[in-house]
Amino acid sequence: MGFERKDANGSKRPLRVLHVSTADLAGGAARAAHRLHRALLEQGVDSRMLVQQMESRSSDISGPDSNIEKLLAQTRPRLDKLPLSRYRGSRSGMFSPAWVPSKNLLNRIAKEDPDIVHLHWVNRGMLRIEDFAKIRKPIVWTLHDMWAMTGGCHYSADCDHYLESCGRCPLLGSKKQRDLSHKILNRKLKSFKNIQKIIVVGVSRWLTNSAKRSSALKGLEAVTIPNPLDTRIFKKLDQQWARELWGLPKDKKLILFGAVNPLGDPRKGFEELSKALDGINPDNTEIVIFGNEDQGFEQEFSLKTHYIGILRDEASLVALYNAVDVVVVPSRQEAFGLTACEALACGVPVAAFGHTGLLDIVDHKKNGYLAKENDIEDFAVGIRWLLDSSQRSDLSRAAREKVCSTFDSKIVAEQILDVYSKVGSNAEQ
Questions:
Q1: Are 263 and 270 in contact (CB under 8 A)?
Q2: Which residues on adjacent β-strands are paired with residue 95?
Q3: Environment class of residue 175 by beta-carbon count within 10 Å: exposed (0-12), middle (13-18) or buried (19+)?
Q4: Which of 18, 53, 62, 144 could serve as 29's disulfide partner, Cβ 3.0–4.6 Å?
Q5: What is the dihedral of CA 389, 324, 233, 296, to 10 degrees?
Q6: Is pLDDT of 2 > 50?
Q7: In whole angstroms, what is the distance from residue 28 CA to residue 314 CA?
Q8: What's the CATH code, domain 4-228+409-428?
């Protein structure tokens, strides 16, 4: 297929790719999609984004145009949640039925007339399950969580029902086999088998292997390509300057914890972190938290805590990473680990549990510390080891080198272009 196409009159033009994502900047999956979009533009690809929730102001990103479309975009997430109202015993956690019709989205995709449709995170009522098979273009689908392979949940936790048929969903609090999760997975089985040309991309080996084992996606071609990071932006800066910028103490060791709604999403490991911090010396160590939706929220910790709130720009995020000594990622499950990757790019070692997507990012005692899975005591040991390590400069150097050699935007863009070439060539056969 190459990275050029011929138009109707035979003239060559750049490969045209349309990224479909619920948002362009809100959330880790959206930021990853946006970063890939920008990286492909630098490679000469005619890349565009089509989103339901738009924050950026760029001519290559399209969102709802009219006031009616904007109102519908705000309504769709609430409509998508309606089937959950029958499950009063449901536990907290993301669950997406994906039943809201998406005819308008299909029309907009057709109007863009791309060579490749690159799907990303398309929940919150953006794309109905039955409409995946109605996209009449080769599809590359980057999985940013487990939703594509489950009966509605975005992370399976300890449940493996998605490997067979779902039902008796613990997240829904259901005891019935033919519950909502069972019906959603059946809808996926029927729809996905009718997609004409598709390659599934997992952002970590764990996610790709989970997809290959799942009943919904097994049999589809699946590869692993990580999320990209622009290492020209995420880089090492002077720590004392960064602390002065943020008004953080210069004479303390600082731990950083952050994610989208880190205090409200149990999967992010706030409870595990809180317990692990009890083993850290409070006299010389403090913790910084960013990403919490409510900046007024205060939680009792054994360490003095600095709440930063939500960061809207990458420059602020880079400065914050550079202000701290260690970044902690206590997630129970992580498709990739964007925070860990960003921290390593800034030369900051990471403490995490050794499972899921983080296994691709953190190398034990080389650029961080991988604690035994769900072992809070070992997690505390890892934090202390990184804070007190005499190998600080070696850890920092290895952290930066790992990201530059594996996750740099240019490297990832080239890998994605190879996938485009393959799915496009298959479509022409």
A1: yes
A2: 153
A3: exposed
A4: 144
A5: 150
A6: no
A7: 12
A8: 3.40.50.2000
Q: What is the pLDDT of residues 247-260, one digit of tens each?
A: 999 999 999 998 67
Question: Taking Cα atoms as reference points, which of 27, 81, 23 lies closest to residue 54?
Answer: 23
Q: DSSP alpha helices (H): ranges in 81-202?
A: 103-112, 180-192
Q: Is 308 helix (H, G, I), strand (E, B) or coil?
A: strand
Residue 6 has pLDDT above 90, yes or no: no
Give the pLDDT confidence of 174-225 residue by residue, as tens digits. Answer: 999 999 999 999 999 999 999 989 999 999 999 999 999 999 999 999 999 9
3-class SS at 114?
A: coil
Nearest to 239 by CA among 323, 116, 126: 323
Residue 163 tokens, joined: 């490997």
Tokens (6 digits) for 399:
């952290």
What is the CB neighbour count within 10 angstroms for residue 317? 22
Cβ–Cβ < 8 Å for 154, 169: no
CA distance 19 to 116: 9
Question: What does the alpha-carbon distance between residue 142 and residue 118 come to, in Å, rounded to a whole number?
Answer: 7
CATH of 239-406, one of 3.30.70.1560, 3.40.50.2000, 3.40.50.150, 3.30.565.10: 3.40.50.2000
